[in-house]
Amino acid sequence: MLKKEVQLKKRDLYLKKLIAFKDTELVKVITGIRRSGKSSLMKLMVQYLQDNGVEPEQIIQMNFESIEFQKMTAVEIYQYVKQRMTGAMRTYLFFDEIQRIPDWQDAINSFRVDFDCDIYVTGSNAYLLSSEYATYLAGRFVEIKMLPLSFKEFLDFHEYEVKEKKGPAGELRKRIYDAEGENYDTKELFESYMKFGGMPGIVDIGLDTDKVFALLDGIYSSVVMRDILEREKRRGRRQITDAELLRKIIMFLADNIGNNTSITSIGNTLIDAQLIDIDRRNGRPAVQTIQAYVGALLESYIFYEIKRFDIKGKEYLRTLGKYYIVDIGLRNYLLGFRDIDTGHCIENIVYFELLRKGYDVAIGKIGDKEVDFIAANAKEKIYFQVTESMNDPLTRKRELEPLQKIRDNYEKVVLAGECDNPVTQDGIKIVKLTDFLLEGY
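Predicted structure:
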């Protein structure tokens, strides 16, 4: 029996981006960690096309996770599609996880050159957009970067509705209601998001710890085994072969999200654990080995690296960047639930929220102080501090001080998990974290 189609949940943030590039020459490349919703986004796009007059015979879909297609060559893919082309009408081509096919880019480029078609591609590894492929298509593709669910999407997927109600003093407060009309405090549901994360598959199994961890174990294993270790074999490289060393590096990075981290500090930890040898020439860890493993983790979208920017010197710094994990639920699966380090966890959530909102993000350095995030796009720049609470006077002073040192006129914001008095102080907005996360895009 064929798998029954389930009702798709909307991912409007990403669907709108795809629609914006519909019927352009650009190949639409959807990237992101496994199980983040790329295949569902393709199906949403197919649904959109059919709802807007595109006939079913104009749409060709191939999922290379299916054994039906995964043994094909690039030439066979070309012939398969060519035989199904409609002729007079434009054809819409959807290729899911195509990076599994050797020389797949030859087929994609041929479709683009030979036929009247609109092309959509997904991939779970940044190798899909390696310099080789980027050169091959030379600016003829656009990347749609897909992330796990935001807090707002998390609520929507679980069928909660956010409403504003007036408090005793007339102030507006956000309350959240389920399908039966029962209401919840925003903090209560945010704690669930902090615990379970935003992988879309969680919605199908419910917020049960054992089931969620089983799901996350499957995602983690597929990323490590299929997108890193197996891919290295396919590429004919021998740099990343030690699964235990890879696991130790993953655990180190997961345990140090939001901390200033260098390849050397990772290496020193691994030497202490006797997992890596010292380079006899200089007495240091084998830097190239560690860089290769960390690079593979970045390519598989399980970790993201953020650089430091000197606000006064107006230049990026080479040292002491930070790493954030793509889903906070994955971190909890790896390390277990811990009450410590909440500040870095909410930093992690804010970092990816800023990416969703379309910002380029860096860490700010101002003298001997640090600004958690500089978020910039073509229209604006905003400085952000992120903290668990702004209720304690000493914490308030500490969080405001770096922003007060910045002398330009760009917006400055403190995001606080706990904030009894959201105000503007010295031109700096103090905003409750959940209010920021529930804003529209």
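Summary: The longest helix spans residues 209-234.
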